[in-house]
Amino acid sequence: MNLDWSQIVPYIPFMLEGIWVTLQFVIVSIVFGFIIGTVLALFKIGSLKPLRLFADVYTSMFRGTPLILQLMIIYLAVPQLTGYDISPFLSAVLAFGLNSSAYVSEIIRAGISAVDKGQTEAAMALGVPYRQMMIDIILPQALKNILPALMNEFITLTKESAIVSTIGYLDLMRRGQVVGANLYRNFEPLLFVGLIYWGLVMVLSLLGKWVERRLSKGD
């Protein structure tokens, strides 16, 4: 095996910078996706049929098409239609955020449905407005139940973030490819990047288990 790990040593700081670059857009995307997903979840359980239909079509569209296709449409097709030269970072945030919101909406909807109906009936009997009931009573209980699932979505986004390397965004994956191209050696830098991804996922998985234990003790 023709391996020479010493050649990638000078490039290690460059690749390590990709950790923050990757997490930066992943965190923004998950926050954006959570906000949109919450709105969609409320549409799905609401009484207005047009909003329910919109949320169902939205979810079906983003869950039924590849994420890389959505990324390419935003990065390549939108500038063609609008004339606006969208940046790789904004393209990544929009694609991952919109895609994530479709999954998050289902997670939140399931969490709301799992809340005891007696909570809703009691709030309505006391004359609590619907909006206040959802914000102060239903959503806090739902979020407690779905935090592990949301953490899993965060982990999935972190792994899938490597897709943004296809649009030239200097994330962790792209930096590994750049180093490989400079050295004409791809195995070492890509394996190093793979170990970093694995480490990130392990840290997030441990964090998710810690959250689950905390929630179980809270019960």
Report the helical percentage. Answer: over 70%
CATH architecture: Orthogonal Bundle
- Spatial gap, N to C terminus: 54 Å
What is the level 1 CATH name? Mainly Alpha
> What are the secondary-structure elements, in order, as H or E?
HHHHHHHH
The CATH topology is given as MetI-like fold
Quote the average pLDDT.
87
Number of helices: 8
Largest sheet, in brief, is:
none
Q: Kindly estimate the percentage of residues that lie in beta strands according to DSSP.
A: under 5%
CATH superfamily: MetI-like
Structural class, by secondary structure, is mainly alpha
Number of strands: 0
Overall shape = flat
Subcellular location: Cell membrane
Organism: Halolactibacillus halophilus
GO biological process, one term: amino acid transport
Family: Belongs to the binding-protein-dependent transport system permease family. HisMQ subfamily.
Task: Give the tags.
219 residues; mainly alpha; MetI-like fold; 80% helix; amino-acid transport
Q: Could you provide a short overview of the structure?
A:
It is built from 8 helices and no strands. With 219 residues, the chain is mostly helical.
Model description:
- With 219 residues, this protein is mainly alpha-helical.
- It has a single domain (15-218), classed as MetI-like (MetI-like fold, Orthogonal Bundle), CATH 1.10.3720.10.
- It is built from 8 helices and no strands.
- It has helices at residues 12-45, 49-63, 67-82, 88-114, 117-125, 130-160, 172-183, 187-218.
- The radius of gyration is 21 Å and the shape is flat.
- The mean pLDDT is 87.
